Amino acid sequence: MALLNLHTKLSLLSTIFLVVSLLLAQATGLAESGRIAYMSFVLVAVVATCLSLLFLTLLALGPAPNDGIKSTLSCFSSSTMALLRGKIALYRLQKHWKNPRRAQDRLLRHILLENGDTEYGKRYRLRDIKDRDEFRARHPLTTYEHYRPFVEREINGERNIMTRKFQSSYVRTSGTSGCAKLVPRRNRLRRIRNYLDVLYAIVHMAHPDIGIIQKQLYHYVAPVVSRSKNGALIESALTMGDDTRLYYTTPPAGFRIHSYEVASYIHLLFALRYRNLGSICVLFLNTLESLIKQLAQWWEDIVHDIEYGTISERLNLSDDIRSALKAELSGGDRQRALELRQHFVVGLDNILPRVWPKFRVIISADSTGIWPRLREKYSRGITLLSSGYGCSEGLTMGISIWGLDERPDMLFLPTTNFFEFIRLQNTHESQPETLFLDELEIGQEYEVVITQACGLYRYRLGDIIRVTGFHDNCPSFQFLYRLGLILNLRYEKIDQGVALQAFQAAVDRWPGRVKLTEFAAAESTLLSETCTAFERDEMMPYYLLFVELDFPCGYESCEEITQEHKALLDQELRDRNSDYERLRREGAIASPRVHIVKPGAFEALKGHILDNTSTTANQYKAPRKLQSESLVEFLLHHVM
């Protein structure tokens, strides 16, 4: 049996069990030893028939020939259950979207009653609050500093401070827009799993040609998990449990790797070994771009490992993880290695559909607008499905149900958090008026405020969204940017969306057919006199703009890009922000300093941030606003 491929094994097993069931069916007619023997024959015959049909069904689903029977059965059961759970959850969501106010009111009442007897609850008399209007009137809008002393007391072992129930974990935020925070959470993993089930159902409903046993590449790097004094876990929002989904291409051992580079190699190795890949799931699209760049460097080593069933010795892996992964490779697959080598030697153009002919969808968030460029270069004909909206404080908060038309719109999940919204023009106020989920208007922009069951009430996220329409009675929205990442030397407030448009428009006008790969900005007011970029004679503040370019093949020089070309960035910003235009015209802001960094500089910045901060690889987003002098210095050392 070991020498036969999976298709042959399934055919043989189906035939064997069918023959067994027929023989047993015939034997039941000859049974003369009583009712027990007769029923035993019938039962075994039914089981044999079911097994025969199961193996025949698996064969009809077109499994990868190099898969094992155990792996295929595990994938089938795991994906079937996930699809069933996801469809049930989606059905319930559809009911909530028809009446989001009822769902929100029930959630708020549950939170207030559950936490009303805590120290915090008694201080704000949460149990006495009757409805959402009274809640809005009596409890102030808050930020993390409001809760820091309560969180510290809980972590040190005090009970019944913020919630009556024990907080099983504290989620460490990425620190993208400031210092990292510890957010109390319980049932975190269940929430994440439920969300992934719904996403899985949406993908399969939108792409029915993705078979139930087609596996998914899920990129994940195991974060460091510690324990607080009270015994709770301190972890990232996306820390996975031990029961890794069996429909992922990477075996469970591959999800215990802490190194970004090593984990990426292993994910690529097992995904490329599996020809029938149906989808890829990465939290942010820049992670996928990093994977493809790493693939360009590693493909020969990866193909060698696939061919001979080895794990490259240059990978720093523990013995138990290496042994487990090597066992999964089953001695190698020379035919698949030959096929992959033929694809890679001709280059990476449209590489994803070429190496995976059944690949259909990428599940990810395009926070930087790079999808059109990635699709054209590497994945023509592939659909992008938004991975949704969430954060450490609120976990899963919004989801996209449009699996085919690549709409960036999402719908709020009304049973996960109680939502309020601040009009954009009022976000500068400390206690502005708020609106509820059913009071939003199409085309307007709002800051998101949440109340959740683990102790955060009327918590200002700083996330800005724009309402785009309605699905049933629930508003659809697009995430725009975070207030903490706005560029603001005076009062111009340039948001990420405007900055992205300006960078793209300017680079499109530069010579040499270059394309924008990454960008970041910093405010000169951040710099001390010891910084390389500090200009003692400049009296007015200015922006430092860092640009990484994608050069045409064989051309990696920026000599043709003159100061006049760089000045286009300033002009594009002026065209898009009237306050910036006025301040520049009046001389209140000096012209920006534009720096073109070497290819790979932002990838190196990523490694620097992961090595020196609490940010985990799964949470990482390329910073658009540099908020420390050390990051500015880092990029200055990578200028071309």
Q: Could you describe the 3D structure shown?
A:
This protein has an eight-stranded antiparallel beta sheet. A four-stranded mixed beta sheet has the order 2-1-5-4, with no helix packed on it. It is α/β, with parallel strands linked by helices. 42% of the residues lie in helices and 16% in strands. It starts with 5 loop residues before the first helix and ends with a helix. It is globular and about 90 Å long. The mean pLDDT is 86.
Task: State the total count of DSSP E strands.
Answer: 19
- Strand fraction: 15-25%
> So what's the overall shape?
globular
Q: Compute the gyration radius: what is it?
A: 28 Å
Poorly predicted regions are none
- Mean pLDDT score: 86
Number of helices: 19
Largest sheet: 8 strands, antiparallel
Q: Specify the helix fraction band.
A: 40-55%
**Subunit organisation of the chains:** single chain
Strand line-up of the largest beta sheet: 9-10-11-16-15-14-12-13
Broad structural category: alpha/beta
Report, as a whole number of angstroms, the end-to-end distance. 58 Å
